[in-house]
Each structure stands twice: as structure tokens, then as C-alpha cells.
Fold this protein.
Amino acid sequence: NIVLVLAKKNGISSLEQFAIDICNHFMTTFCQVAYVKTYIQEVPWQRLHEDGVPHIHSFICVPDGIRFCEAEQCRNGPLIVFAGIKDLKLMKTTQSGFEGFYKNEHTTLPERHDRILCGELFCKWSYGECKDFDFDCIWKKIRECILEAFAGPPDCGEYSPSYQKTINCIQMLVLSRVSQVQVIEVVLNNTFFNVVDMKNLGLTNDKEVLVPVEAPYGSCACTLGRKKFFEAQGH
Amino acid sequence: NIVLVLAKKNGISSLEQFAIDICNHFMTTFCQVAYVKTYIQEVPWQRLHEDGVPHIHSFICVPDGIRFCEAEQCRNGPLIVFAGIKDLKLMKTTQSGFEGFYKNEHTTLPERHDRILCGELFCKWSYGECKDFDFDCIWKKIRECILEAFAGPPDCGEYSPSYQKTINCIQMLVLSRVSQVQVIEVVLNNTFFNVVDMKNLGLTNDKEVLVPVEAPYGSCACTLGRKKFFEAQGH
Amino acid sequence: NIVLVLAKKNGISSLEQFAIDICNHFMTTFCQVAYVKTYIQEVPWQRLHEDGVPHIHSFICVPDGIRFCEAEQCRNGPLIVFAGIKDLKLMKTTQSGFEGFYKNEHTTLPERHDRILCGELFCKWSYGECKDFDFDCIWKKIRECILEAFAGPPDCGEYSPSYQKTINCIQMLVLSRVSQVQVIEVVLNNTFFNVVDMKNLGLTNDKEVLVPVEAPYGSCACTLGRKKFFEAQGH
Amino acid sequence: NIVLVLAKKNGISSLEQFAIDICNHFMTTFCQVAYVKTYIQEVPWQRLHEDGVPHIHSFICVPDGIRFCEAEQCRNGPLIVFAGIKDLKLMKTTQSGFEGFYKNEHTTLPERHDRILCGELFCKWSYGECKDFDFDCIWKKIRECILEAFAGPPDCGEYSPSYQKTINCIQMLVLSRVSQVQVIEVVLNNTFFNVVDMKNLGLTNDKEVLVPVEAPYGSCACTLGRKKFFEAQGH
């Protein structure tokens, strides 16, 4: 009920503002509450367009990366706001390899210089002291950074020597372009694609026919932050 | 292996052509085969664009309606090709009601003249004798018909007295615009949205705060075809 | 509402009887109805037991094969009742091979004489003219037949030369033991398990360490019926 | 590869021991590793039985609560082992209410003294210093505690004034019976069931016909530990 009442009274100017409102409500109303955490996820409805004209009342669900946010607060502590994107599936059909990795007696994986990189990306970042941020605008900017760092320039692309490196590029670009972001976590699952060996079938296969290998898949999670943030945490 | 070999040898000019190729292969290679059915589904990868420029090797997965097709053939029978779209989620936030329906002693549902229509659409159609159809082009045209019939004109929309009527409009529009379609089946699930009663909370709620009711939901399936098709079937 | 009212008035003596009641209601109440199909699925709640004592009001959900049924009727046609089990996951860790299969130039799969058979079974059968069947009892008996034919005797098991043959054994056993079943359809998905090649790691691997290959997987669907049934259908 | 090699070399005496082995391997082999976390989940295969006789090679998948464990270690810190159960669906058809809760101007929920309690339970606990625990035996004992505290005695059951209280009972019983458990977290989602109002249909409904309300659902998460544990953490 409280969530519905707050939606009615305050409206939802942005996901993040609504998460903050809910946190504030519980902190200020109930003195016995020691900690509040709010999670909000958007259903990705987009307005329909016909020949470029936006439709007055019709929408289509386009789940190409789901927006979410969190707000959390301990009593006597700062309000921390996180935002993120999940279920964002991306693929590079070339200019991706896996090379220069640590090898020991357990390593059987060969180096690869032209493979497919295909994965599901999860990204979550925290804002510093929340002033009057335009959360919608920042979120869109970060989504663009992710796509740009993943793909490289549209005309020539960019070589990825590993998906770990790609994750790092995404994080570096976001931190350099979006000053409000303090810490950014990225998780990328990588589904492998096998080039089918067709020799026994009397055929060559120059990376024309590939089959996805759904399990086991690689997964890499990395968290990167600004120096001052980690210093403040005592690290 | 056969599917991989055919992909390598013939390429995939369209989903439907590839389904036809697989059918033909089994029918012509194995005389003991009495019936073949092929189902192919597309993973909805779309090329990334940066500022309108298509990216050379990067893609994003955009599941706003999944394209699929089927080809089936009985020995000595015609090859029948179906195509379709599934998991297409659409919503009208207004200009939708539910009225004029049959009522008896079991009816407790009131008539509604302004509700939300929100559902997941499945649509499958059959082509007649397959000549040299441009399957990709026809599929896109049918998808546009579905959206147009669901939404109405972008500037004013169109009132839907029931989602059953909306299904019928979709089918009529496809059959009138796309001569290659013989029969079209549409299934639409309708998730209800309750306008939250806020009187006990001391608030009015003029359709501002709604809650989806995920179960039970309404579902309507309807198949519509051209007269000559059903006559040929002896109906 | 009608389903709820029928549940209240008639109770649910068995899934199948309730499906029949719903069919009958629509056929006898609405003369414009030409065809009715009912599908009912059970949520697999089982009564909790403590040291063998059944609990008076507590249940646990045990989804080891979901029971479902269908009833369908065309006006002026007979009422046909189907029952089935789905999502039944079974595994044989040995005594399973794949041999004696048709080979041509596209065959690269070697014969195997000791592999894991692991799959998800779907089974659906139709009853003949429904008299006063004890649907619950028959369903349990068929479930036992499926497990017995899949596994073989508990002390020594039974060799399966292919999962296609195992499907056939299941169908033959059900038809021989349960006279009420007219036609039985079985679908079995087979997930492969690779014995990991550990030579490059300096280790032997005598089928101790295996990895499941989730896609692509094999799938076989087969429908088997009594002779008189197919004669009646004109086949 | 390392996981496969460890499975081959050490075998898997229990999930927890295998998780510990993996942690140890990374900590002792790579001096640059600062933190390791392992998660292992069991696929719930159970040996088939025919008339009480265990089958030599056949298994059935029975997902009535999935066992998992985690092991985590920071360099120079202790190895912490967690175990748990998830996706355990339980129901009480009576002797469950919701009463005595805090009320203010936002409260519209009435007190209930006989409702259905139906939810999905997640439970995770940590062990103290791991000596030679019989992890399998402890896990089974905790599962029994959960069921016993949820259900009460089989002959008369036990009244639950709220599912929050039921969670607390589960935690208290586990901590009192299983000395190795230091902290226990329980999350219980509660799906509501509406008693259908049949007055407008001219029928009474004495809790005979109910409909589940899948969203929104209640959810409660609670973590409970021994005093000495929290003192050691500085709380």
C-alpha cells in the first residue's frame, strides 16, 4: 500500500527518485527501522511509431537491456543510489580473440585470434552524493558508453583480445565520461561458438557454420571504482 | 549434421527457404520418409547503430517479437509453408474496453469502456503454393499490419471494444493486404490491470495507479482463412 | 466463472472427470459451440510425512512428472479424453548405447555401447469410449509402466540400444498392460554427456568425469496405437 | 579444467568438501589471488525404486528443494562454508493466519485467522570453524527441522499467526538442534489465495474454491545467528 500511495502522491519522476522516496518514507516514519533497501525494475515498454510518428496510446515491449535501480540507507548513514542495466545481449561476430592469458599444466585452451564474442551483460554502478541528478539522462549516456566500448567505431570496429579486457574498457569509458559514477560493476557471460569441423563430411568450413555451446560458459565479474572512493572505504 | 551441411551448401537466403530445403532433402533422399516437418526460429540479433551508422560487426539482441517458420510435407502431398511471429508484447493504455459480450447467470464481469489492453501476441499464417515469394519482405509487411491494426492511427488511435475484436481486425487487415496469406491464426493473452481502490487510504485514483493481475488471464485464439481455402478442405 | 462454479458444484473427483464436466457444460449450454477442448494440469503437491505419518494440513511440492489431461469434443462427435505426464526427468547411468543406426555420407556419429541416457519425457495417451474408468488408478499404473520400461529390473537393469528403442518399449508395455489406452505418444529429449578427454592434462578418465552438452540435444517423438484404432481412422 | 581435474583427483565426498577443495586449490596455487568464492548446486537425482528395491543404474529427478553450498575465503582470513536449500515449495492448507501486525493509516489488510500459507523457501546457513563435519548428514537434519517447524506435529499441526513467525520458528529450531550452524538466513515468498466471492453467482463458498494471486506476493527475509557470532563481528 505504501508504495502505491507514494506513487499516487509523488508520481514517478525517475526510477531512482522513486526508490529514494520509498527509502525516505520508511526511514522518517518508523524509528525502529535500521536499514532500508529498495529495488525497482522497469518493464521496457517503448512507444510505437508508425513512419516515425509516435503513437498516442500504443506501446511495444522491447527488452534490449532492462533498467533497474537500488537505493539503500542505514540509519545515520548516507543514502546510496545504484542504477544499472541487465539482460543486455551483445555480440561481435569478429575482431575478438582470447590471447595472452596465464597458462599452466591445467591449460588446454588454445589462443584464439578470431572468435565470436557473444554474451549477456549486467552492469551496476553507484552514484556519489545524490544532488539534483538527471537520472534518466545519465542512464542513457552510460548505456551508450557500454555499446561504444563493446563495439568500437562503427566503420572499423575494435579488436578485443579477451572479454575481460572488453569489460575493463567499458568501465574505463563510463568512469571517464560520467563524473557522477563512483564505482561500476560489470558481469559478462560469454557463450562460446564452435566452428563445426566438416572434414569428415568432405567439406571445408571457413567460419561459415558455427554452433553455440551453451554450457559450460565463461563468466567474468569485475568492479572498478575511483581512487578516492576506495580510500574512503579504507582499502 | 544434415542441417549443418545444408546450411553450408545452400546458405540461408531466408528462414522459410531453409525450412523448405530441409524438407526437400529428407523427402528426396529417403523413400521411407512419409512426413517431414521443419521448425526454425530466429534469434533476434539486430545490427548496432551509432548515430545512425550501422556497425560493421556488432549486434544487439532485441526480442520484440520472434520470427519463426515451419515447412511440412506428406509424401504425395503439397509442401506447406507457415511463418509467424511470437512473444510480441503490446499495450494500449486507453481506447480499449470490453463490452457487448454474452451474459448469463454466470456472468459477473461488468462492461468496461476504458481499460488497459496488454498482451502477448502469437501469430502464424500459411502461404498457398509457394512460388518465388520474398519471404523476408512479406514477413515485415505482416508485422506492420499487426501493429497498425492493434494500435490504429498514431494521432488518434482506435477504440477496441474487446481484444477478440482486435484479433479479428489484425486478421482482416493481413488477409486484405497480403495476398499470399491463405489462413492466419492469432492468439492473444490479455493481462488485466486493476485500478487500485484507494478510498480506504483517503485518496482518489483516477486510473493513475494500476496493478497487473498476472493470473488468471484471458486468452483468445482465432483462425481465419480465405473462403476458397476452406472450400478446398471440404468445410 | 464457469470453471469455478463447476468446481464448487461438482467437486473434482479426478482431473479427467473435471475436464469432461467442463466440456459437457459448454456443449449442452451453448448450441452455437462447435468444438470444446479442455486442458487441466496438476500442481504436484504431496502430503508431508513425518516418520511415515501423513501430516494433517501440510504439503510439499514434488515436481517429478506433472500430470495433465485433455478432453475434446466436436458437436456430433465422441468425447475424447487424453491423459499424460510431462517434465519427467530420467537417467540411466549405464546400460545404454546408440547402435545399429542408418549411416550415410552425412553420418559422423560413432556407435556407442556405454553412454549415459538422460532426458525429459513427455507422454500422452488417449482413452477409448470413457465408461467408469478409475482415472487416478490408471494414471499411476501407466507411470509405473514408464519407469519399469525405462529402467528394467532393479537388480540388473536392461540394456537400451537407443533411446528410440526405449520409447518403443515404454509404449509396448503400456499398451499390453493397460487395456483402456488406445494410442500413446512419447517424446523423449536426450541430453548428451561428454566423457572429458583428460589426456592433455596427463590424466586418464574412465567415464568418471562427464560434462552435459545442453545444446543441440536429440529428441524423438513417436505415436503408437492399437490396430483397430488406426483402422477406424482409415489408415 | 581445474574443476574437472579436482573432481577426478579428489572425488566429491560432499558438495561442501568439493567447494573447500576448489577454494584451497586457488589460494595455495596462485599467490596473486586475494579472494575465492565457490558455489555448487546439486541436480536432485534420486535413485529409482521398484517395490522398495533400489535400482542399480536408474534415476529420477525430484526437485523438491535444491541443495547448494558456498565456500569463500579471503587471503589471511578464515575459510567460511555456507550450505543451503532453495526452491523448496511448501503449503499449509489451514492453521495459518496473519494477525497482530502493525497498523497505521496505510493499512487496509484485514486480520486473517484461517488462510492458506503457500510459499517458496530459501534457506542458507554458515558453519563455524569447519572440522570434520558430516555435511550430508547435517544437511538432511536441517531439512527435517525446516519441515517440522513449518508443519508442526503431523496429527494436529501448529497454528502460524504469520509467515514471519514461521520463519523465526524454523531458524530457532535449526539453531537449537544443529550446533554447527552459526547464522541462518531464511527467505519465504508467500503466494496469497483468494476465497472466490460467489454471492453474485448465487452460491456460498466456505473456503472450497480458492484462486492463487501470483503478483504481488509477500516476501520476508530474516537472518538469525548465535550471540557469540555477532559479538565477534563487532555488532
User: Anything to note?
Assistant: Chain A has a mean pLDDT of 93. The radius of gyration of chain A is 22 Å. Chain A has one domain: 1-101+112-233. Chain A touches chain C through twelve residues (CB under 8 Å).
